[in-house]
Amino acid sequence: MTRTTRQDPKRTHGARARAHTAGARTHPAGAKAFAPEYQGALGALSVNSSLTDVLAQGTTQLRAAEEAGEPKEAARCGLAVAEAHRRLGNVTAADRAWKASYRAARSARDAAAMAWAMWSGGTLARQRGALPLAYRLLERAADLGERGDDVLARGYSLAGLAETGRIQGDYEAVGALHDQLLTEARSRGEVRHTVWALEGIAQMHRNTGSYDRALELFEEAARTAAAGDDRRGRAWALRGIADVVSVRDEDTERALALLAEAEADCRRMHLSSALAYNHKMRGNVLYRAARYAEARDTYRQALGEFTAMDEQRGTALSRLGLTKSLARLGRPRSATRAELADLRDTFTRIGLHHARAMVERATTELGTGPLPDATDAPATAPSHP
Questions:
Q1: Contact 6/170 with Cβ under 8 angstroms?
Q2: Of 183, 275, 200, 166, whose CA–CA distance to 231 is shortest?
Q3: Which of 91, 98, 150, 344 has its CB surrounded by the most CB atoms within 10 Å?
Q4: Cβ proximity of 156 and 193 under 8 Å
């Protein structure tokens, strides 16, 4: 298997990932979730604010900061604009916005603001499937966060490294880092980051067959998110619960009901990426229930959503689900084999090792026979700012 060349986040940061206390925003037990990427004039925005509202307010405040010649404020408002664009699926605008935020922060000599901009850029790179670039930007963001004494910027950047390794399937490399970041988030009362870490650890358990433990963690994440009023985190947790009850309990109707509940929050907050992943999971649930025509239509919907936002991982995963559904509905075996071969090469290029293994399992499940030899196309990545 060809693996993406990268730094090992556990080796690079695990030994020095302890949080600095200076500048940290601490919250007592029972605290509500907050969004640290909403800063400066946008600091009062809620983690549950509609992304269209965030984008509108952020754009207005960014223009005001630029006109006033305040690069530090422009960097912080630009971060919110970048994140709103990214989560709405406007990847080209998000790419411009995080780079502009970084340049403004650099001109203000604000290392912490530079770290947040790099974090946004690294997260966007992962979303677009440019994993080597994601590692580089997130590594740099973590170092800038340490230099700027911003514990949250550093923590979020380390979390980004951990998540990038996790979606590749490198659980041994990032499992301990997930555990460490969970401990730190709990110690500071950070609801949103606690929920993220619980969901990441749960996903690793789910993918390695520890369904009972995965369900416990997803349910804890859902409870924590609900108590902290983190609707985005709860929507992702409900998706995880739906996945486990579908695969472990074969409870299709409960899984679909959970996904419908999560979808309602995604729509209220205009969470385009989360909504597309919700639909992709709905396709998974329907496929497991042998409702192949419904699964086909749902995967097609998710595929269109992911394609529109240039989300390569979601696009490829939706293609895999669609390919399997079409095969079950009578698609010629030769066409299925060709599509699976292309998907295998796509997952290899992106560096999604766990997903590549899913393709290999699909060849057995669908009886396509061996796939043609793999091609090792080099990964492409957007440029640095």
A1: no
A2: 275
A3: 98
A4: yes
Q: Which residues contact 369 (CB under 8 A, 6 or more apart)?
A: 333, 337, 363
Identity of the residue numbered 330: G
Encoded tokens for 45: 């925005």
Residues 223-262 as b or e (16 or more Cβ within 10 Å = b): ebbebbbbbbbbbbbbbbbbbbbbbeeebbeebbebbeeb
The sign of the torsion formed by the CA atoms of 183, 127, 272, 37 equals positive
CB 187, CB 153: distance < 8 Å:
no
Mean pLDDT of 330-358: 93
For residues 180 and 14, what is the distance between their CA atoms, to the nearest angstrom?
A: 8
Tokens of 44: 């009062």
Q: Write phi, then psi, for 150 (nearest 5 degrees).
A: -110, 100
For 348, the token pair is 């290899």
Angle between helix 312-328 and 272-288 (nearest 10): 20
Closest CA to 91 of 376, 310, 385, 312: 310
**280-322 per-position pLDDT tens digit:** 999 999 999 999 999 999 999 999 999 999 899 999 999 999 9
pLDDT in tens, 86-102: 999 899 999 999 999 99
Within its chain, how far is the Cα of 103 from the centroid? 25
3-state secondary structure at position 380: coil
Give residue 106's Cα distance to chain centre.
26
Please, what are the domains in the chain? Answer: 10-17+30-174 (1.25.40.10), 190-266 (1.25.40.10), 271-375 (1.25.40)
Question: Contact, 240 vs 199, CB < 8 A?
Answer: yes
Task: Give residue-wise pLDDT tens across range 262-286.
Answer: 999 999 999 998 999 999 999 999 9
